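From the thread on structure requests for the teaching lab: each student submitted one protein with a one-line request. Submission from student K.M.:

"Model Peptidase M20 domain-containing protein 2 from Paenibacillus oceani, tokens only."
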Amino acid sequence: MKQTIWNTIEHHADALKEIALFIGEHPELGHEEVLACGKLTDKLRQHGFRVETGILGLDTAFIAMYESDKPGPTVAFLCEYDALPGLGHACGHHLICTMGIGAAIGLKSAIDTTGGTIRVYGTPAEETKGAKVPMAEAGLFDDVDLALMAHPFHRYEQSGSSLAMDALQFEYYGKSAHAAANPQDGVNALDAVLLLFNSLNALRQQLESHTRIHGVITDGGKAPNIIPDYACAQFYVRSANRPYTDETVRKVIRCAEGAALQTGCTLKTSNYEYSYDELRTNEPLSEAFTANLHELGIAADRVFSGQDHGSLDLGNVSRRCPAIHPFVQVVDEPFMLHTPEFRDHAMMNRALDGMILGAKALAGTAYDAVATPGMLERIRLAFERTNKPGQ
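Reply posted by the TA:
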């Protein structure tokens, strides 16, 4: 049956590659992925999936579903398809989404035999306001038995961890004045931002090593001879888990408040993007994916242990249902994500072939979970262990 799944994906490989190339050639920013959403949902409808768009009022979000007549577990494949500003698909999301629908199409060839439901979640804007966050909050994954996606990379990696993250914006309001004629009448908002950066530089020494704080000044004034009455800075605050991220955020906010007190500015604090939780990999599901890579011909010494590669909104999903996020090799040089080199090579035949292999591994993993006696129970128990109350 698994070979039937893989043969189905191979049969549709050319059409899947055309979709990936189209999306790669037409990059769209988060929540603007109209063309990508249309291509993906059209293909899923052609294969008998019932598609609902505009999920939670998000124009480019969708859920596609195929339900077997036989009862069984619910398998979810997650698709991302937003591009990066100025770089296009330098994170390979055109491959991620096509892997997802390819896996769903492959698994559909077996689901009527095993029983169960296949869902494909179209999740816009992973790079910024990731749609998985409100989807998870709305309970859209609560009845899912396993959620799978794979990310293109320069090597194979098991599903690992990610950093929890908050996106903080600090706006300082002061009073403008002529910087030469009467600076004593001004309240310098830019000084508050600079003090904030210096405070955070001092704070870093007292933080655990897995913590990251990085930011930019988005508005620092309009002219050097005017005391800035407004300045703004944005930061990402990350750590290995949500509780420590929350603790660090409280410290960062105190630094921001101190800068306001020192300068006499008024401070407004807000979150300019969604907060991402850390990824909690489901180990039995991850082991099944690695086993499928081996079945597909990838030698054991080519699959590395999972690494932290930043933050992702799948972390929020992994708090709601068993989930994995492994990495699949699609380029042969160590090009890093979010670079022009990775973007360009992710459009080549080598990358498209890697995408098809990734789709097969995802579908094979889902089939093993559904068809292997006792495996769903192991997956569920592992999920409960990693998501105990208070964690």
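TA comment: The domain at 164-271 is CATH 3.30.70.360 (Alpha-Beta Plaits). The chain has a mean pLDDT of 96.
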